[in-house]
Amino acid sequence: MTILPVVELIKSDCMKSLKDIEKELTPEEIAESYVFPGAKDKKDRKEILDVYRDYRKKISSKQSAKNKLIAELLQLKFLIEDYVTTDNYNAIYHFGYFLKEYISRIEKNNKEFAGEIDVAPTELSQVINKHRRPTEKLIYRLELHSNRNFPALLWFKVLEKERAYELTHDKRIIDSEKKHVKQKLEFSI
Amino acid sequence: MTLTNCATEENHEAVIEPITAKDLKIVKKSKDRFAFDWSIYKDQEVYKLRLKTSDLILGLMCLIDHADPETNAIEIELLEVSTENTRSTKKWDRIGCCLIAYACRESFKRGHGGHVFLTPKSYLLEVYPQKYGFIHVPMTSLARPLGFMVAFDEISRKLIKKYLD
User: Fold this and answer.
1) From the candidates A35, A41, A49, which should be mutated to test the interface with B, based on the most B CB atoms within 10 A?
2) In sequence order, which residues have a C-beta less than 8 Å from that of residue A5 and are 6 or more positions away?
3) Are the beta carbons of B72 and A74 separated by less than 8 Å?
4) What is the ipTM of this complex?
5) Cβ contact (<8 Å) for B144 and A82?
6) Do B144 and A49 lie within an 8 Å CB cutoff?
7) Is the pLDDT of residue B109 over 70?
8) Cross-chain residue pair A47–B142, CB shorter than 8 Å
9) End-to-end Cα, chain B, rounded Å
10) Which of A34, A139, B6, B114 is deepest in the core (most CB within 10 A)?
């Protein structure tokens, strides 16, 4: 059984050793500042993970339906949050894609969900399939339906990202609007 | 996500992002700020925390994503706050807490239900539950005689709400 001592992972020429850390800081300060690594040996790692898996299995079997649903909705929310803050655009992740995911995770079909937010099923379907832009009223109703867990601002940011991409990449719009601009500035700033 | 300036008690926005090779070189040279040799984690998933207005790295964390359905959790392999922020004279508070909450968020985001675990030291068995709400799981192996500290479901949600929202 080989347990790689934590001290071996500390830079040999560093200012402090693990003993120094433990001597200088209180347990509370250590808990706020460090998580120390565990065993590195492959056999030890396997043994540790086997024990953890047993525990994980027990916990999973006891997870309530509510906690499972919350976890699935949080996953979606964090995926949306991260997507709207990255610079990368992905055509798959349009407003309708995330809306469809939301409906699917709360285990509704489109018709049921349309009824819950008082929107025509055809309108909902068109938004999901990217044949129609979502209205403000739809977005506010999504916020209310989710008990404000998915704020309107988050949905607007998804739309904004789509719009920004279209504005900079849709050459057809730019070309078709050119003929309407009779006069323009002749210099760059 | 904010850090608190201990002198002024003002909150300042912070960001957590993947570390770069350039960052690792800087950390390696910062012998008085980081005790661990982070260069050995260069091929792993390592994140840095910094203030939004500064490039100075204030904390580091290495995560292991156990994506297999049986484990389905994130392990915090190593976490370290810069030396000047580890004691009562520290300038910035909440660095370690934000990093741990970030691990919980990543766990939800990757479909692990907020499950996060780490290796406890014996003298921290009572501190982690008090500080973070972690549960001590005394299921032991020879290699990990103290068991695990775990967070999931509500515990992880509370940490995310408290430190990241």
Assistant:
1) A35
2) none
3) no
4) 0.91
5) no
6) no
7) yes
8) yes
9) 6
10) B114
* Chain centroid to CA B107: 13
Give the total residue count for chain A.
189
Cβ-contact A89, A161 below 8 angstroms: yes
CATH superfamily of B2-163: Gcn5-related N-acetyltransferase (GNAT) (3.40.630.30)
The answer to whether B86 contacts chain A (CB < 8 Å) is yes
Overall average pLDDT of the B6-32 stretch: 93
Indicate the pairing of strand B92-93 with strand B57-66. Answer: unpaired
pLDDT at A8 over 70: no
Q: Kindly provide the b/e burial profile for residues A17-29, where b requires at least 16 CB atoms within 10 angstroms of the residue's own CB.
A: ebeebeeebebeb
The answer to whether B93 and B12 are in contact (CB under 8 A) is no
SS3 A28: helix
Dihedrals φ, ψ of B115, to 5°? -70, 120
**pLDDT given for residue B143 in this prediction:** 66
User: pTM of the predicted model, to two decimals?
Assistant: 0.89
CA distances from B74 to A65, B5, B36, B156 (A): 22, 30, 21, 12
pLDDT-derived band at A2 (thresholds 50, 70, 90) equals very low
Residue B4: CB atoms within 10 A of its CB come to: 15
Q: What is the pLDDT of residues A103-141, one digit of tens each?
A: 999 999 999 999 999 999 999 999 999 999 999 999 999
